[in-house]
């Protein structure tokens, strides 16, 4: 297991280095990302500070080394709009995105796993058909449609805050996160329900399940203790990848609900051509995705020891 973990960690580091190199070439090798262009007027002092921070007066290979050093320290320069260190803006946005991602994933798992198990155990019943139909419909709905419908019909009602709302209105995080989390969870929960159903049906046909039943174990024990563990393996993979994507920022959902997370930060930065923020958010998204994917691989190997041998 230790060798497997080491191999996955080394692979993750190499992927991050390759991704950051591509980001560097796309932003620094083709020009000065901190220069004024078109309608974007960068204050001269901010532009000069960013150029000095990233060593744009030095040869390109040395620029990349400086860029990596800044990335490791979490120093991404100074924002064009608020004239603040970009790191401070990320520090404010990341906890909100993490909360949103975790709440959405919890909703995904609760709805998706339960629905998938019910559909598999009661195969071809009314409940199986109902889960299949609802999941198929939910997968086909674009996330922005769900968000717009919730904003138009649910936001401002009961515990759900209005969208948009005044900056002077303070809302507890657990109320602010509900609608965007539910928006993100609907489609993922449908995928998980489909995955769980298919995986569960395959496991229920396995020899060890028939053996467990032949021993006289109760159906609850067979399903809960023996069938669900192996059935969860593809679900764990999907949830981990989905969590990595959400940690990187759900840009559409956060923008629709004006939720102050990484995705909303990126969308406003793109509109304003705010290069330091765009670079920082893209790097954070890549690192978050790779790290979460690595953790999922390790958890996958824990659930199924056969994976370690590959």
From TrEMBL:
Limits of the ABC transmembrane type-1 domain: 94-300
Keyword Membrane part of the UniProt annotation: yes
GO biological process: transmembrane transport
Membrane topology: Multi-pass membrane protein
Pfam families (alphabetical): BPD_transp_1 (PF00528), BPD_transp_1_N (PF19300)
Protein name: ABC-type transporter, integral membrane subunit
CDD domains registered for this protein in UniProt: TM_PBP2 (cd06261)
Primary subcellular site in the record, as a coarse category: membrane
Assigned protein family: Belongs to the binding-protein-dependent transport system permease family.
Location(s), subcellular: Cell membrane
GO cellular component, one term: plasma membrane
Organism: Pseudonocardia dioxanivorans (strain ATCC 55486 / DSM 44775 / JCM 13855 / CB1190)
Keywords on record: Cell membrane, Membrane, Transmembrane, Transmembrane helix, Transport
Ranges that cross the membrane: 12-30, 100-121, 133-157, 177-196, 235-257, 277-303
